[in-house]
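Give me the fold.
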Amino acid sequence: MQSNHRKLNVNRASVVHKARYAARNPRRVAPFLRRTARDTWLRLRHPGDHVAYYRAVMASDAGRDPDFAVGSATRKRWLALGRMQFDYLRGHGLRPAHRMLEIGCGNLRAGWRFIDYLDTGHYYGIDISPDILISAKKTLVTYELQDKLPYLTPTRDLTFDFLPEAHFDVVHAHSVFSHSPPHVIDQCLAHVGRILAPGGFFDFTFDRTEGREHHVLREDFYYRTETLVSLAQRHGLRAEFMDDWEQLPHGQSKLRVTAREDV
């Protein structure tokens, strides 16, 4: 399905695209050069370790503005994106009695709504960034959700080895795989089936391309849908493209993963 939000055949890593984009958006040249300098420095500090690299990226961004660190340029946009995620998931199967794991919970842009909606103790949020989880705790205080007893835990990988088997009805990852290289996604899909309860599902968004798969710096990754569907199948999972998500004002696409025996 052709997206209304972006051109799906563009290779954003190409020199030609960067030159054209810079010509059309001169104000964004300086910020991109700063990102490039940071990327170079962090690659040297964390060679071959993407989690340590991106944890440092998050520390840098969260130090400036936690909302910006999770991809929201303004507080209004932070609220709108959180509401969009919540409304979509509630309309597609989420119920108060469900136990939910949010991967990359950030500063609870959507998480505070999930916590408020779910039964007490049924929300578990993980993130690779301790810095953003400090901000998440402030969000809990802001919305007076302490009595809902959510779990907020830092993690270094997506093996979920510290979580119980067949426990979560819903696993959710918004704008996580858009910042993840293939081996991180593979690790997640290799282990998420173990923690999904019978009939449970895993929703995740990704930056979609219908051209060549590529990444910009080591922060933004673009995948073909069939690549991720095949990867899920390799781990005994079924992945469904969520067409109606494409109609919403967000630039990413969404897949829903379920265990094959649940379909």
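The CA atoms of residues 104 and 127 lie 4 Å apart.
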